[in-house]
Write a structure and sequence with these properties.
heterodimer, A: 287 residues, mainly alpha, MetI-like fold, 2 domains, B: 291 residues, two-stranded antiparallel sheet, 13 helices
Chain lengths: 287, 291
């Protein structure tokens, strides 16, 4: 009895953890399961019977496919724009002391502390009657892109800057000592070293953009992104193909993630082996 | 020459991003503020009449939805902290070889669209679903009762959707915890519980603060969960802002509501950070870095 009690106490955190993980993964399982459902009516909420019918041609629904393509295109351009702007900001903030540094920091933090609905609403107010600017905005792809880049920048800064903080400045000094111009140092030393941070920032902004509903809801005009399509389809009944595509996207992302992790592990192991081989000549490169 | 160039370099790096944020974040806030003081209609146009009564009217008319939003978001945040902490703790200290897999499971929901996940909950909590059947058999839910379109369903949805934002900062701060401090506490004869509340929790405070902010702020403005999982009695302030802007086109009142929500959150944030004494949102040590 006492031993059982002790076992429970020692493993209680783990048991709670497992229950919470089940809670977190349950909806994903439901999405995948209901992609094989054969609903009788328009609504796919009740399990009727098993079919692979919707997996045979998930892209048949052109409205759905168009919205997906639009979302991918939007996410692609968002991730390019936000990654460039955010990386430059992060470099300036980590590397330099200048007037207005605190203010710039604040300008980057506040959008992350603003509820999405407020960002969406303020952008719509602005696009309806742009203050200070002699421009007329037409709600559509451009306004979506502007909005998505805007809310992604802060997240890019956070990711890239964490990479920059753990950066060995001596490598750049060495490059300069060897006669490289600052711009060469940037392309040949700095960028390759912060590349993993920049790449994850780009992936993050892509993911944020493709998943965004609230801000797009306000600023899309007549354009229909994938989340907006789902929102609209909700009243009419969401087609089973949505579940199929969601399951496919999930599987592809998981496989890609696992491949990256596996690749990293292998690279680490090989680096370790190499370090063991020529222990004497090792120069530690903190990454 | 070079010194001038060097002094201007940071501004050149900053300029594109800062201009973008000023033009598409700061100025829109101004636009929204100005719009909130106008009167008129969509057909006749909205004139700036400094109509401050938009605010008093909006707040008195929709105070229920404001309170409901903060109540739902607050409850969801507390639940997230209570279930997220043990999970983050288990991943950091008990995970062993399963650590990466568990972390992976935490972020896995992000690989499906937010809306689809929320709709999956609608399937799970549907009147005819297995889960609701079990709850009815266990008499937790009355025979003719529903789970959908209740406050509970909306809070459960909010909890689910924002849980990773609680877990990740908690995990980050637990991971950094110096385990020798826990050993020291035990060596000094503190019980497991005393050690947890006097050592572990205070040391992971930055993670707790960041987690609470990252959960509460988005949850309080959310309208997706209440749209899909709630009924008309569960409308949050986000629902009102959304429909006033996009359905009714009553822009001034919508702008006033949205501005009020922002101000409340910013005031709460400032007090909270003052009280907690850290700029946890960014997770950075700015002070140390500049010193």
């Amino acid at each position: 009895m006492k031993r059982a009690w002790r076992w429970i106490r020692e493993n209680s955190a783990m048991m709670v953890a497992i229950l919470v993980l089940i809670y977190m993964l349950a909806p994903i399982a439901v999405i995948a399961l209901f992609s094989f459902n054969d609903p009788t009516g328009r609504f796919n909420f009740e399990w009727v019977g098993f079919t692979t019918q919707y997996w045979q041609d998930p892209f048949a629904n052109s409205e759905l496919t168009d919205s997906l393509m639009l979302s991918i295109r939007l996410a692609f351009f968002t991730s390019i724009g936000a990654t460039i702007l955010g990386t430059l900001l992060a470099i300036a903030l980590v590397r330099y002391q200048f007037m207005g540094r605190k203010a710039s920091n604040l300008l980057i933090v506040i959008p992350m502390a603003t509820p999405e609905v407020v960002i969406g609403a303020s952008l719509l107010s602005f696009f309806l009657s742009p203050a200070f600017l002699p421009i007329n905005f037409q709600l559509g792809f451009t306004t979506l892109l502007i909005a998505h880049i805007m809310f992604s920048i802060s997240f890019v800064v956070v990711v890239v800057r964490s990479r920059l903080i753990g950066f060995d400045r001596r490598l750049e000094e060495a490059s300069a000592d060897l006669g490289a111009a600052p711009i060469t140092t940037f392309w040949k030393v700095t960028l390759p070293l912060i590349a993993p941070g920049v790449a994850s920032a780009a992936m993050l902004s892509f993911a944020l953009s493709i998943d965004d509903f609230v801000i797009s809801n306000f600023n899309a005009g007549a354009e229909v992104t994938f989340p907006l399509y789902i929102f609209g389809a909700n009243q009419r009944g969401i087609p089973v193909e949505v579940n199929v595509i969601a399951t496919m996207l999930f599987t592809v992302t998981v496989i890609a993630m696992l491949a990256v992790i596996f690749q990293q592990r292998r690279a680490e192991r090989m680096a370790e082996r190499r370090a063991d081989d020529d222990n004497k000549a090792t120069v530690s490169v903190p990454i | 020459m070079t010194t001038l160039r060097q002094r201007l370099l940071p501004y050149a790096l900053l300029a594109p991003g800062v201009v973008w944020l000023i033009v598409f974040f700061v100025i829109p806030m101004y636009s929204m503020g100005e719009l909130s003081l106008r009167t008129g209609s969509l057909t006749e146009g909205f004139q700036l009449t400094w109509a401050f009564e938009n605010y008093t009217n909006a707040i008195s008319e929709y105070s229920t939805q404001f309170f409901r939003a903060f109540f739902y978001a607050g409850t969801a945040t507390v639940i997230c902290l209570l279930i997220g902490y043990p999970l983050a703790y288990a991943i950091a200290f008990k995970g062993g070889r399963w650590k990466n897999l568990m972390l992976f499971a935490v972020i896995a929901p992000f690989f499906t669209t937010y809306l689809i996940r929320t709709i999956a909950w609608k399937t799970i909590l549907d009147d005819s679903s297995f889960v609701v059947g079990v709850l009815k058999t266990l008499q937790i839910v009355p025979q003719d009762g529903r789970v959908l379109a209740t406050s509970g369903a909306v809070i459960a949805g909010l909890t689910y959707n924002f849980l990773p934002f609680m877990i990740l900062p908690l995990y980050a701060s637990l991971e950094r915890l110096d385990l020798r401090l826990i050993e020291a506490s035990k060596d000094l004869y503190a019980s497991a519980r005393v050690t947890f509340f006097k050592v572990t929790v205070p040391l992971t405070m930055p993670g707790i603060i960041a987690g609470i902010l990252l959960t509460f702020i988005p949850a309080s403005g959310d309208y997706v969960n209440s749209t899909f999982l709630g009924g008309t009695q569960q409308a949050m302030i986000g629902n009102v802002i959304q429909s006033k802007y996009l359905v009714v086109n009553d822009y001034p009142v919508a702008a006033a509501l949205s501005f009020t929500l922002l101000v409340i959150i910013l005031i709460a944030l400032v007090f909270y950070i003052k009280f907690a004494g850290t700029s946890a949102l960014m997770g950075d040590d700015d002070e140390k870095e500049t010193a």
